[in-house]
UniProtKB/TrEMBL annotation:
It comes from Flavobacterium caeni. The keyword NAD applies. This is Malate dehydrogenase. The lineage of its organism: Bacteria, Pseudomonadati, Bacteroidota, Flavobacteriia, Flavobacteriales. Keywords: NAD, Oxidoreductase, Tricarboxylic acid cycle. Belongs to the LDH/MDH superfamily. MDH type 3 family. GO terms for molecular function: L-lactate dehydrogenase (NAD+) activity; L-malate dehydrogenase (NAD+) activity. Its EC number is 1.1.1.37. Residues 1-142 form the Lactate/malate dehydrogenase N-terminal domain. The active site is at 175 (proton acceptor). Signal peptide: none annotated. Residues 147-301 form the Lactate/malate dehydrogenase C-terminal domain. SUPFAM superfamilies: LDH C-terminal domain-like (SSF56327), NAD(P)-binding Rossmann-fold domains (SSF51735). It comes from the Bacteria.
Length: 311
């Protein structure tokens, strides 16, 4: 199984590293526009092989799409990250052009691939990729919910003072500081609702911390996060390549689900060898429905800025 990762920066290289050492794919190609950069990252990652015991073939190329031919999955992480004080939405001006041209180049050599979009603003970049390529909706997946849900579980585990892997929880909606919807009502500690253990005030703080999880890290690091983002992409790619049919919150094209159409936004999906195999359309309560509609409005407003790129 072959995975191409476009953009060998912080997120792309981390994703390649996790895919390699976990043996998720047999071949990983890193592609970057910066001369020699992807080659260097691939070499550095490959020199881990003998001390960490894995065999994935990791190579790097400078803008040579021929080397990405016949990829089963392509991950797009190319573009700029935000700096402290910025929103993800402010990246659209530069990233839209990059994502569109990358998606078009990829399809020349991998017409049957499944594309995972990571570059921000991710929901809008996912919509752009779908519209620009005309690919069937099951083959375009935006990664955001897997990461946001892992942050939600992290903050819940801190509040509970219990292991994160004993917590089950999901974030849906847009991948933005104000558009994420942590589904607190459905979060559980070993099957028991977290409201049995935490006050409403504590739960509200967990949800608020989750929503600004990326901004908090950007403030601390000076650029946006990469370890959890890279691992979250690898988790999603694993479910596709190894047909695991995991339920993962992903940004996908909606046609009536959750009362929305003509938009890519985070909802629970079954992810397998065909990409998005099912959108899990659960019943939200009235408050959650309102939040989802508001989140969709914000994402749709952002999509309107794509007019010139899609013309
Ligand atoms: N969806 C999500 O959950 C997350 C999204 N992101 C987003 O992912 C993107 C990448 O973030 P980082 O890896 O931290 O940035 P980075 O700056 O470390 O890496 C980006 C790489 O893209 C390359 N690049 C730029 N234009 C290119 C092109 N036309 N073709 C090929 N490569 C190109 C750059 O040379 C650079 O190496 C950002 O837009 C960031 O906001 C980051 C974390 C999580
Ligand atoms: O915060 C950012 O800009 C990068 C990102 O999407 C995340 O880490 O959630």
């Amino acid at each position: 199984m072959k995975v191409t990762i476009v953009g060998a920066g912080n997120v792309g290289a981390t994703c390649a590293d996790v895919i390699a050492y976990r043996g998720i794919a047999s071949e990983v190609v890193l592609l970057d526009i910066k001369e020699g950069f992807a080659e260097g990252k691939a070499m550095d990652i490959s020199q881990c092989k003998t001390n960490t015991g894995w065999n994935t073939n990791v190579t790097g190329v400078t803008n040579d799409y021929a080397k990405t031919a016949d990829s089963d999955v392509v991950v797009i992480t190319s573009g700029i990250p935000r700096k402290p004080g910025m929103t993800r939405e402010e990246l659209i001006g530069i990233n839209a052009g990059i994502v569109k041209s990358v998606a078009e180049n990829i399809l020349k050599y991998s017409p049957n691939t499944i594309i995972v979009v990571v570059s921000n603003p991710m929901d809008t970049m996912t919509y752009l990729t779908l519209k620009a390529t005309g690919l069937p909706k099951n083959r375009i997946i935006g990664m955001g919910g897997a990461l946001d849900s892992s942050r939600f579980k992290y903050y819940l585990s801190k509040a509970l003072d219990k292991p994160a892997n004993d917590v089950s929880a999901m974030v849906i909606g847009g991948h933005g500081d104000t558009t994420m919807i942590p589904l607190t009502r459905l979060a559980a500690y070993n099957g028991i609702p977290v409201s049995e253990f935490l006050s409403q005030e504590a739960l509200d703080k967990v949800a608020a911390d989750t929503m600004v999880g990326g901004a908090t890290l950007t403030g601390l690091l000076g650029t946006s996060a990469w370890y959890a983002p890279g691992a979250s992409v690898a988790y999603l790619v694993d479910s596709i390549l190894n047909d695991q049919k995991k339920m993962i919150a992903c940004s996908v094209f909606l046609e009536g689900e959750y009362g929305q159409s003509d938009i890519c936004i985070g909802v629970p999906c079954i992810i397998g060898k065909n990409g998005v195999e099912q959108i899990v359309d659960i019943q939200l309560d009235e408050k959650e429905k309102g939040l989802f509609a508001k989140s969709a409005d914000a994402v749709r407003n952002m999509n309107a800025d794509l007019k010139s790129v899609l013309a």
